[in-house]
Amino acid sequence: MKKTPDRKRKQGRPAGQAVGRETVLRKAAKLVQEMPPSRVTLALVARAAGVDPALIRYYFGSRENLLLAVVDRLIAGVPKESAPGAQPLEFIEFSVRNAARFTRSTKHVHRLMVDELADARSATIRQRQGEMNQRAVDSIRQVFEQDRGQQLRAVNPLFLHLALVGLFDFYASAQPVVRNLVPAGTDLEQLGRQFEDFVVDLVLNGVRRR
Fold it and tell me: Looking at the structure, do residues 92 and 195 belong to the same domain, yes or no?
């Protein structure tokens, strides 16, 4: 009897995998919030989601694409605008507090952008990462341009964005350093809110026209 040759299964969703893309993305986002991005592998995400790594490759194509989708998801949860009719100084305060709270709630996200996406093999991913940061810079620039020197003095929007990222990212990612600088038992969450208030005061007094 002639043996029928095995047919290769066409590429597609792995058989027997009922977990959806959103579930995988949610598990990956949770891992990124809990540990350094370099430790978030496809195998680790697969174990957390209870799926075969092939399903993650089916949904996202690569680890870089998965991490980019995680950043998109985290950023999507950030309020995009302050209150309607807000004055320039109010918008700047909103931007500073937004940066502080976003970084505290997703303490590894900036490290993810630097270590995993800025130098990604894919030119498309590098471009997307740049666009994410450029939008923040452009938002600040627009406020200064619309103000026309009435309330705000001339400040480089890029430098202001970099300063905010650096200040809040260090506080969020270097908790052991901060903990060693304060008395034992200090509430670091409360200290983080106090640090946020300090930076707001520092920035507003720095950009306010005298």
Answer: yes
Give the domain range for residue 65.
Answer: 21-74
Output 165-173 pairs: Cβ under 8 A, ≥24 positions apart.
Answer: 165/99, 165/103, 165/110, 167/199, 168/99, 168/100, 168/103, 168/104, 168/196, 168/199, 169/103, 169/107, 169/110, 169/111, 171/103, 171/104, 171/195, 172/103, 172/104, 172/107, 173/107, 173/108, 173/110, 173/111
Whether pLDDT at 148 is above 80: yes
Residue 164 in domain: yes
For residue 14, being part of any structural domain is answered with no
Contacts of 110 (CB under 8 A, 6+ apart): 103, 165, 169, 173
Single-letter amino acid code for the residue at 159: F
Answer yes or no: do 58 and 148 share one domain.
no
Q: Are residues 178 and 147 in the same domain?
A: yes
Would you give the distance in Å from CA 148 to the centre of its chain? 31
pTM of this structure: 0.78
pLDDT at site 14: 54
pLDDT of 93 > 90? The answer is yes
Same domain, 88 and 188: yes
Q: Is the pLDDT of residue 147 over 60?
A: yes
Residue 45: predicted pLDDT: 96
Q: Which two tokens stand for residue 142?
A: 């627009």
